[in-house]
């Protein structure tokens, strides 16, 4: 299986503070990679650099074997922080705004609404959606350009158990559709049920990266990495 994304010594500084410190990781195509770490570990900063929101201070990002460029954003979808949803518009109308911006045909809308199971919301405005439905609408927006890589930052934050289960089922369906997923979380148990590879960050450092092995003491590994590297991150 080939790699869709690789970072080499990826570093981000904000003034005198190093938020991400020489991070090197490899993410295989059609996999789900869980980026774990406590709040402030640097996870969101990593994802923002991959999504083109932040510029690295040092290091390289390779996408599908070549140096990352802004042209690659056409193959990358992301949901980072709050879903960019217009509360007074329906799900279809929210997607229509995005297709207009991206210059995509309206025929892209129905398939992604079906994927995230929002195709029966009709004229209901997004402001009346549950948090889980808003998250799924945010993912639909990220899927409009038919990405090969989908970046999700803490996608289950604030969801109830039913919403988490529904979102987990959606995320695990993506690799068979040819979509690689990177998701961040500070909740170990949630990532273990979703991802097949994990990376553990603390203090801006990637302390561990590898495939999830049956019977492995991931909680002990997580705590060990955090204790060794924890400091004030972003």
UniProtKB/TrEMBL annotation:
Which InterPro entries does UniProt cross-reference here? AAA+_ATPase, ABC_Gallidermin_ATP-bd, ABC_transporter-like_ATP-bd, ABC_transporter-like_CS, P-loop_NTPase
**NCBIfam families named in the record:** galliderm_ABC
Species assigned in the record: Lactonifactor longoviformis DSM 17459
Protein family: Belongs to the ABC transporter superfamily.
Question: What is the name listed in the Swiss-Prot or TrEMBL entry for this protein?
Answer: ABC-2 type transport system ATP-binding protein
Where on the tree of life does the source sit, at the highest rank? Answer: Bacteria
**A Pfam family:** ABC_tran
- Ranges for domain ABC transporter come to 5-228
């Amino acid at each position: 299986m080939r790699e869709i994304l690789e970072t080499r010594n990826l570093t981000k500084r904000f003034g005198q503070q190093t938020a991400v410190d020489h991070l090197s990781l490899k993410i295989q195509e059609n996999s789900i990679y869980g980026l774990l770490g406590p709040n402030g570990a640097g996870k969101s900063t990593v994802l923002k650099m991959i999504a083109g929101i932040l510029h690295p201070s040092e290091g390289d990002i390779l996408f599908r074997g070549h140096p990352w460029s802004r042209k690659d954003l056409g193959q990358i979808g992301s949901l980072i922080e709050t879903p960019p949803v217009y509360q007074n518009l329906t799900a279809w109308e929210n997607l229509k705004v995005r297709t207009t911006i991206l210059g995509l045909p309206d025929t892209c809308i129905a398939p992604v609404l079906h994927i995230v199971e929002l195709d029966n919301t009709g004229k209901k405005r997004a402001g009346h959606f549950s948090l889980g439905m808003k998250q799924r609408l945010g993912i639909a927006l990220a899927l409009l350009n038919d990405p090969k890589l989908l970046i999700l930052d803490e996608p289950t934050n604030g969801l109830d158990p039913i919403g988490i289960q529904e979102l987990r089922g959606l995320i695990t369906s993506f690799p068979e559709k040819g979509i690689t997923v990177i998701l961040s979380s500070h909740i170990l148990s949630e990532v273990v049920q979703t991802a097949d590879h994990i990376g553990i960050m603390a203090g801006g450092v990637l302390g561990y990266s590898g495939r999830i092995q049956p019977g492995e003491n991931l909680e002990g590994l997580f705590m060990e990495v955090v204790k060794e590297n924890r400091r004030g991150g972003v």
